[in-house]
Amino acid sequence: MDAEPPKPTNAELEILTVLWSIGPATVREVYSVISRRRPAQYSTVLKFMQIMAEKGLVRRDEKQRAHVYEAARSREWTQRQLAGDLMERAFSGSAKALLVGALSARKTSKAELAELRKLLDEYRKGQK
Amino acid sequence: MDAEPPKPTNAELEILTVLWSIGPATVREVYSVISRRRPAQYSTVLKFMQIMAEKGLVRRDEKQRAHVYEAARSREWTQRQLAGDLMERAFSGSAKALLVGALSARKTSKAELAELRKLLDEYRKGQK
DNA sequence: ATCTTACTAGTAAAGTTTTCGTACATGGAC
DNA sequence: GTCCATGTACGAAAACTTTACTAGTAAGAT
């Protein structure tokens, strides 16, 4: 098994989000998505993706001239790391406290509350 | 109204956690709590607390020779910021996805699931 | 009054993250 | 074959984070 990649930084997470969304992609493709949202330089995105390859956050296929990058870990795996890390650092490991924080951060619709409840039901079943 | 302090860094969050726990305290008091957990220098803790005062993360009472520091924002307020920030950046704003991440990050007891469910019930009532 | 202890402030250095300019290479158009 | 567009690699600098040393000062003990 590969060594675990480190927790992605903010900028790295943004790039991973694009890769998860559009799948394996070249720097140009990632850059074009990001630059639609905010000012960014191609060479900055390139540099990040090179660093991420070194760190093991992405895999790089160099067969083509324009290298193709792919997230090394799934969105779910990474989300688990990030949620677990924040839960430990800021919420004393309490999922409840984390959920309170999330819910109070913005308005939550009834539909969303219902979904959350359903999620807990499924979790309970899976555990029993 | 004061300007909002920035999101605390890791080291800053550790210090805030101590302040929330023991209340307004001197550098020495915070240091003694932290150094029980891990190697740390007094002057490092001092420096952080000075920086945090500049950033507005803590308030400082200089009436005594040993200045007394106090978290400028409540634990709940800060947790809301942090949870909201991560939810946006890594979970597309979905509380459900964040909860999935948190629950899958570690074993969750039945008691905790029950607590979470109760929390949602209360939330629903509060909204209706 | 002097000594010692405890505290703050200032300085600095190392590490990490973020940003971007530029050089060089390669593939395709002509 | 030469030229141009599009890539990657490299280097470097700015900003932020983390750490720690040291000078100076003030309070309390003797």
Short description:
2 copies of one chain form a homodimer. With 128 residues, chain A is mostly helical. The first copy, chain A, has helices spanning 10-22, 27-37, 42-55, 75-91, 95-104, 110-127, and strands at residues 58-61, 68-71.
Describe it.
Two copies of one chain form a homodimer. With 128 residues, the first copy, chain A, is mainly alpha-helical. Helices cover 65% and strands 6% of the residues of chain A. Chain A is built from six helices and two strands, in the order αααββααα. Chain A has a two-stranded antiparallel ribbon. In chain A, strand 1 (58-61) and strand 2 form a beta hairpin. In chain A, helix 2 crosses helix 3. The longest helix of chain A has 18 residues, at 110-127. The mean pLDDT of chain A is 94. The A-B interface holds A 10, 13-14, 17, 76, 78-84, 86-87, 89-91, 93, 95-106, 108, 110, 112-113, 115-117, 119-120, 123-124, 127 and B 10, 13-14, 17, 76, 78-84, 86-87, 89-91, 93, 95-106, 108, 110, 112-113, 115-117, 119-120, 123-124, 127. Chain A binds a DNA duplex (30 and 30 nucleotides) through helix 1 and helix 3.
